[in-house]
Design brief:
- The complex is a heterodimer of chains A (889) and B (101).
- Chain A is α+β, with helices and mostly antiparallel strands.
- Chain A is 53% helix and 15% strand.
- Chain A is built from 27 helices and 22 strands.
- In chain A, strands 1, 2, 3, 4, 5, 6, 7, 8, 9, 10 and 11 form an eleven-stranded mixed β-sheet that branches. In chain A, strands 14, 15, 16, 17, 18, 19 and 20 form a seven-stranded mixed β-sheet that branches. A four-stranded antiparallel β-sheet of chain A has the order 13-21-12-22.
- Chain B is mainly alpha-helical.
- The longest helix of chain B is centred in the last third of the chain and has 15 residues.
- Chain B has one domain: Arc Repressor Mutant, subunit A (Orthogonal Bundle).
- In chain B, helix 1 crosses helix 2, helix 1 packs across helix 5 and helix 2 crosses helix 3.
- The chains are: A alpha+beta (889), B mainly alpha (101).
- Chains A and B meet through helix 2, helix 3 and helix 4 of A and helix 2 and helix 3 of B.
Chain lengths: 889, 101
């Protein structure tokens, strides 16, 4: 019995001893064997109750052996780190160069990651129990998560049991302060439950509640954001209870929202003030909008809700969708085209998320390439250093250091370098995170300031980078030919290392090529866009946008003003043609409305949504939108008391009437297709890309503003040539006609079009910066390799020159080698670029992702760069006196 | 001021001070689990509170058994034990105090 037990205990001891570091294993085993032996003896002599059984004793050896292993590992690691730090300190130039290279590579990555973190991963801190907050919208099959009309908010508020509270919001630009010194601020119009849904606490005063959102026009109170309190109100501590004017109407400040909160949206302007929804009529001065708050066809609100306890978003979706579908049936006589969507969390909507993910993926790929190039560069530097350190390593191996130990020591050095680079990168990221928002083509409510997650990311990236660039040089350096190395101090550098280093340079050049070629494609797109015509005149057209609603003008006054402006502006010197329109192309705005054509059995639904622009006579002529059929809108057919008329864009005509002739036909705008709400088609104009150059033209209808009403209008004026800027005269004309109206936006259409390519510009800019950076790193890598080749072939060069070789021919020999490497890099880069071409094709305009001319130009540039990088080391090699070279070794 | 020792550590130091000077003997004296005793001994050795002495080969061979490893308190170990016991004394009723010489 005892012998079985002790055999088992011995086995446990043997197993545990394997965990003990080999140097300490013998002593450890001896001590435990003695203990076991003594235990047997003691148990034989007397059944001592205080003694454990042999198996229990042996089991106690397991934690002991684990502890020994841990202690040893920590000690060795500390020793490695101390040694690595000493080595790096003694090579200040190398260390500084490596840290800077890595800081660039890692910093680029942490910067883009801080963006990803802020936009995709983080939710605003100020929201209480954020897991229960959901966004509600129309989940359209084309990926757009769309807004809803006010009646649906009311429907959910009054009937839903799955939501504890629901709120609707929208954002509008308004003017704060007194006339003459107004500041543009962003107002979020919110229903009373908004802050309850978000579970938020004010930092001063109180937030809005349902009691503040009961009577239209009856609650002139606002909550100001922390940043607006600091920026606009100067951080005044007594601001709560004071009065501020928004669009010339006084409001009382009820409280201040928590710091860092700018609304539940990520994209778009952060809120400066929150105003009760019931004040929207007063705030916007746009009675039509408020009058139509009950219109179920007017989708203009985003909904956020707080789930009731223990209700999942899916369960809430089922309940809300049922309510929504039933209401749709009652309102429109048919089920909704798209179901209702409920998504967990605030932040990006699904459609925005997809767009942002694409752009972040491209940016991450770009910075990933930069880091890869930086790593290859570092690997090259370390390979070169491995050669010069071969004597030191040889001595250590000769003294008994194992290969694993040497590799680990060298890897510790590279990881330490990378962490140094990472540390600098994080510091740099704090700075770039502040610069970044200015570079972005969109405004966002979130801050890109790095947090712990970014720090963790930087540490991981640095460690991985350190291992990636350190492992191959470390393995190579750990197997020097000891005898040879100790003798000469230079051997082990063999030609194998040369191949590896050349391979790394080819890789670097290839990756740089990918970035440079992508940049070139994007820049060419921007050039192409500069010369593009979206279907209407842009180069010679200036615009000024204003709102009569904001200034409190009524319909009649507004109509008179539009007529007067059209007349006054057309008479200005230098103006060839002028007109007004209710839209602003390229990301300004356009109104969308529903038309009810004659019922057609094959149509999927009875109505069609189209862009609707209200214009004065002269609009189409000014924009040079060609009239394809019928007659233009003119003073003769657009008087307020005449039957209402409409112009269709070509695609709108096809949508409404298929192939039939639309002229003279009626387009109803209400479901009952009443003649008084119908428009007679008098003409068809060409399609135009009003929204974006990268989007197909959208079907559009145009009606005379004199027969309708519009609050926001843009004056368009076309000059005889590009050199005439009409924005100033347009402003003056507006100021003369209506001194109380301020200009909202002004500029040339061409400028707006260029700015609308923001995403392409951003990627082009960053790819350009990083492409040049990568190319410089690659060039310095090539320089290093050429210097290495030149020095290892010094003797050969000496022999050649002693035998009469010309300096020029030796120089050519080296340069040829660089050109071969560069050509390989270019070939690999071209293959990669073509393979990756699809990634950026969405951002391109007027150039194919595989355009041979662009590829050739970049190829030549990379090869030229290689020749320049190779020239100095090659030239230096030829300056060596043959005798000196021959005397070497 | 040195960090005060925990109960297990103090008990092991005290056992060694009472000439219970190898692993199994310390286990018997303190009643602590075997794993705890050996790991603590390792730590105390690292902190310089105990030193180890290997029994000489001849004695072990004569007895026909493996060499034994003995533990002894160092000066620092003595001081640490004294301080800790003094601190424990403050928690003990006067008639239960058992002072070591």
């Amino acid at each position: 019995m005892i012998s079985n037990e002790s055999r088992f205990a011995s086995r446990i001891l043997h197993f545990a001893s394997l965990l003990v570091p080999s140097g300490d294993r013998r002593g450890w085993r001896e001590e435990w064997d003695a203990e076991l032996h003594y235990l047997h003896q003691a148990r034989r002599e007397s059944a001592d109750a205080g003694m454990p059984s042999p198996v229990r004793l042996a089991l106690g050896a397991l934690p002991h052996s684990l502890w020994e292993r841990k202690e040893w590992t920590v000690a060795v690691l500390l020793q490695d780190v101390r040694f690595a730090a000493r080595v790096l300190r003694h090579n200040v130039t190398f260390t500084a160069m490596a840290v800077i290279t890595l800081a660039l590579g890692i910093g680029a990555n942490t910067t883009i990651f801080s963006m990803t973190n802020a936009m995709l991963l983080r939710s605003p801190d100020a929201i209480g129990d954020a897991a229960r907050v959901v966004q509600i919208g129309r989940d359209r099959p084309d990926q757009n998560f769309d807004s809803l009309a006010y009646p649906y908010y009311r429907l959910f508020r009054d009937n839903s049991t799955s939501l504890e509270a629901v709120s609707a919001w929208t954002s509008r630009n308004v003017f704060a302060g007194e006339t003459g010194e107004m500041t543009r601020v962003n107002a979020h119009l919110v229903t009373g439950e908004y802050f309850e849904v978000l579970g938020m606490q004010p930092i001063d005063g109180r937030l809005l509640s349902s009691a503040d959102d009961q009577v239209p026009g009856g609650h002139p109170v606002v909550v100001v954001s922390y940043s607006a309190w600091q920026r606009v109100l100067g951080g005044d501590p007594s601001v709560v209870g004071s009065e501020i004017k928004l669009n010339n109407y006084p409001y009382t400040v009820a409280g201040i929202a928590p710091e860092g909160f700018g609304g539940t949206n990520v994209i778009g302007n952060p809120a400066d003030v929150w105003v009760p929804m019931m004040m929207s009529g007063v705030l916007l001065g746009d009675r039509y909008q408020f009058a139509s708050i009950d219109d179920p066809g007017m989708s203009w609100l985003w909904l956020v809700g707080r789930l009731a306890e223990d209700v999942s978003p899916a369960a809430a979706r089922d309940e809300l969708d049922a309510l929504y579908q039933q209401q749709m049936l009652e309102t429109w006589g048919e089920a909704a085209q798209s179901p209702l969507g409920v998504i967990a969390g605030v932040g990006l909507r699904p459609d925005e998320r997809q767009a942002i993910q694409t752009i972040l993926a491209i940016l991450s790929a770009i910075v990933g390439i930069v880091l890869a190039v930086a790593c290859a560069n570092l690997a090259n530097l370390l390979l070169a250093r491995g050669v010069s350190r071969s004597r030191e390593i040889g001595v250590r191996v000769a003294l008994g250091a194992g290969r694993v130990r040497v590799v680990r020591q060298l890897l510790t050095e590279s990881v330490l370098l990378a962490l140094g680079g990472g540390l600098v990168a994080v510091v740099v990221t704090f700075w770039t995170a502040r610069l970044l928002p200015a570079l972005l083509p969109i405004t966002t409510t979130v801050s890109f300031r790095p947090d712990l997650r970014v720090l963790f990311f930087a540490t991981c990236v640095s460690t991985v980078a350190g291992i990636v660039f350190g492992v191959v040089p470390a393995i190579r350096a750990s197997r020097p030919d000891i005898v040879d190395t100790l003798k000469t101090g230079t051997a082990g550098a063999g030609t194998g290392g040369g191949w590896l280093r050349s391979g790394l340079v080819v890789g670097q050049l290839a990756l740089s090529f990918v970035l440079l070629a992508s940049t070139a494609f994007l820049v060419r797109s921007l050039w192409a866009a500069q010369g593009a015509e979206p279907g209407f005149a842009t180069r010679t057209v200036s615009t000024v946008t204003f709102s009569t609603g904001l200034a409190g003008l009524d319909d009649q006054e507004a109509a008179q003003l539009y007529n007067r402006l059209a007349r006054d502006v057309a008479a200005l010197p230098g103006v060839e043609s002028a007109g007004l329109g209710s839209n602003l192309p390229f990301g300004g705005w356009s109104r969308r409305s529903v038309m009810w054509p004659e019922p057609r059995p094959e149509a999927p639904r009875p109505f069609i949504e189209l862009d609707w622009t209200m214009v004065t006579p002269g609009f189409h002529e000014t924009l040079q939108l060609p009239l394809l059929a019928g007659e233009p809108i003119s003073a003769l057919n657009s008087a307020a008391d005449m039957p209402r008329v409409m112009l269709l864009s070509q695609s709108a005509a096809e949508l409404l009437f298929d192939d039939a002739d639309p002229l003279g036909r009626l387009v109803p705008t209400t479901e009952d297709r009443a003649p008084e709400s119908s428009y007679r088609v008098i003409g068809v104009v060409a399609d135009a890309q009003m929204r974006s150059l990268q989007q197909a033209p959208r079907p559009n209808v145009y009606t005379p503003v004199s027969q309708d009403r519009a609050s926001f209008m843009t004056i368009y004026a076309r000059a005889a040539n590009e050199s005439i800027d009409l924005a100033g005269p347009l402003r003056e004309a507006l100021a003369t006609a209506a001194p109380e109206i301020g200009v909202l936006i002004q500029g040339s259409l061409h400028q707006r079009m260029a700015e609308s390519l923001g995403q392409t510009t951003l990627v082009a800019r960053l790819a350009g910066i990083f492409g040049v950076l990568a190319a410089m790193l690659a060039a310095s890598g090539l320089y290093g390799v050429m210097a290495f080749i030149a020095s290892s072939r010094r003797r050969e060069v000496g022999v050649r020159m002693a035998l009469g070789a010309e300096r020029g021919s030796v120089l050519r020999m080296f340069v040829r080698q660089a050109v071969i490497l560069a050509t390989l890099g270019v070939a690999l880069g071209t293959a990669l670029t073509l393979a990756l071409g699809g990634t950026i094709s969405n951002l391109l305009y007027g150039v194919a992702p595989g355009d041979p001319v662009t590829l050739l130009a970049i190829a030549l540039a990379v090869i030229a760069l290689a020749v320049i990088a190779a020239f100095t080391p090659a030239y230096r090699a030829t300056r060596v006196a043959p005798v000196a070279a021959l005397r070497q070794d | 001021m040195a960090r005060r020792l925990g109960y297990a550590t103090a008990a092991i130091l005290r056992a060694i001070a009472q000439e219970r000077n190898y692993g199994l003997d310390i286990i018997a004296a303190t009643g602590l689990p075997t794993g705890t005793v050996y790991v603590t001994l390792g730590r105390l050795q690292k902190r310089g509170f105990v030193s180890t002495i290997w029994e000489d080969d001849a004695t072990a061979e004569a007895d026909g058994r493996p060499r034994r490893r003995y533990y002894a308190l160092t000066r620092a170990g003595h001081d640490a034990l004294e301080q800790t016991l003094a601190a424990f004394d403050a928690l003990t009723l006067p008639d239960q105090v058992e002072r070591r010489g």
